[in-house]
Amino acid sequence: MSSTESPSVPAASVLPRVAPVRVGEGERLRSVGLPGVTLTVRSRQPAREGLPPALYVHGLGGSSQNWSPLMAELADVVDSEAVDLPGFGDSPPPDDGDYSVTGHARAVIRYLDAAGRGPAHLFGNSLGGAVATRVAAVRPDLVRTLTLVSPALPELRIQRTAVPTGLLGVPGIAALFTRLTKEWTPEQRVRGVMGLCYGDPGKVTPEAFRQAVEELERRLRLPYFWDAMARSARGIVNAYTLGGQHGLWRQAERVLAPTLLIYGGRDRLVGFRMARKAAGAFRHSRLVTLPDAGHVAMMEYPDVVAGAFRELLAQPADAGGTAPDARS
């Protein structure tokens, strides 16, 4: 494993960077070279030495920045790192072009193995939730606890509002969408994404909105942006169709780690009705429902998510169950 560090932007990449990457106070970025993939890793200085490691995995179209609020909340209980999946954030595309859920999981496993940070407290949102589930199922030795925020697990009846995202995986749709929306401003695009992902987009601060616009502008200039989006969306759809031992629900049943499940009542991408099914599939699970949250509860209510994680740490290893609705 090779690594380069910087207080602002990692130095190593196979493609030129087009703009600075935002690094929050107390955070740093580094670029890690692994077999077949280079990952950008965002870390936060823990409150003290010796805290157990945690790794965070973002969703489709997201980046490690999505976890910054929660990483700050948990700085006193875990030593936090968040990865940019291949082709997202500041990580270049994978050498083999594999954007499947398995491909992303392989990248996470390679990082945990190379960094020697397992077993870690593993967090995942949306696509990252599917990736984290697969990691926990196939490499239980790497996962201490599993926290899933609106994980992208197979649904028979997809919400209507989630259909356009799924269609990105159809060959040619991403290129068509790019042509049809070429006149859209970054501000319009960000408002659309926030309207889809947040329970109440009005709660986003002007500063957070501006930062999101700047990040989108940067990423839209990357030559592989839409390819990474389309292929990863296709990877989710393909994972939904897998049966047998490779099916995500079957793998959820194999997870041994204590699992925290967080679902938002206003989620427009992952059906809220899937919460109970997930709680039944993961054998050692604790379910927390946030009626006012959308798809990214860790960004909307990081304090509530952090509190639920602390409760997971406090419960006996063999305890599970369902927590009452959490309201902020």
UniProtKB/TrEMBL annotation:
Q: Which UniProt keywords apply?
A: Hydrolase
Alphabetical list of InterPro entries matching this protein: AB_hydrolase_1, AB_hydrolase_fold, AB_hydrolase_sf
Q: Which Pfam families match?
A: Abhydrolase_1 (PF00561)
Parts of the chain that traverse the membrane = none
Q: Note whether RNA-binding occurs among the keywords.
A: no
Q: Name one GO molecular function term.
A: hydrolase activity
What range(s) does the AB hydrolase-1 domain occupy?
55-300
- Name of the molecule in the record: Alpha/beta fold hydrolase
